[in-house]
Amino acid sequence: MKKVSLMVLLAVSTLNFQACSSKKSENTDSVENAENANEAKEDAGTGQDEETADFAVKAANGGMMEVELGRLAQEKAASKDVKDFGAMMVKDHSMANDELKNIAATQNITLPATLGEDEQKHVNELAKLSGKEFDKKYVSMMVDDHKEDIDEFKKAAENDKTNPAIKDFATKTLPTLQKHLDAITAIDKSMK
Known about the structure:
Blueprint: H1 2-28, H2 30-44, H3 50-76, H4 80-107, H5 117-127, H6 131-158, H7 164-191
Helix pairs in contact: 2-3, 3-4, 3-5, 3-6, 4-7, 6-7
């Protein structure tokens, strides 16, 4: 009987521990929390459609990463061009982030408060580098990231289902993203 009671107690403890662990991991990623909040709002009929909310969350998360990486570039890059590009990232993406926050507030969209786990890993990875090694990794990441961003922003700008305020934001931001891609592509070519 003691063995059965001990086994039941052990099983219950294990289940409680797993439940606590899964709740803890669910609550640590700001991006997941924002996505869950937006899904709940949509289900309640008070939020935006999933595509609009997902785009806003991705744009906010990506914008925060651009600012953090831009700060690192100003601090750790060897090349003046890379440092200058980093400064442009901080300036332009901070402005875009502020604009998106204002739009999200008026459209009942929850944005992440901090970087998502994946983006934080990129920041942590680059924070360990400096000089030419930093420049190479940062420039490569920025080329890829801006190509992806342009694709995402074009989709949002061209999608008739996208919330009009978010659609306007995407349309308005596209030329800046293209300017960033052109600048980082030129830096990339000059480094080879």
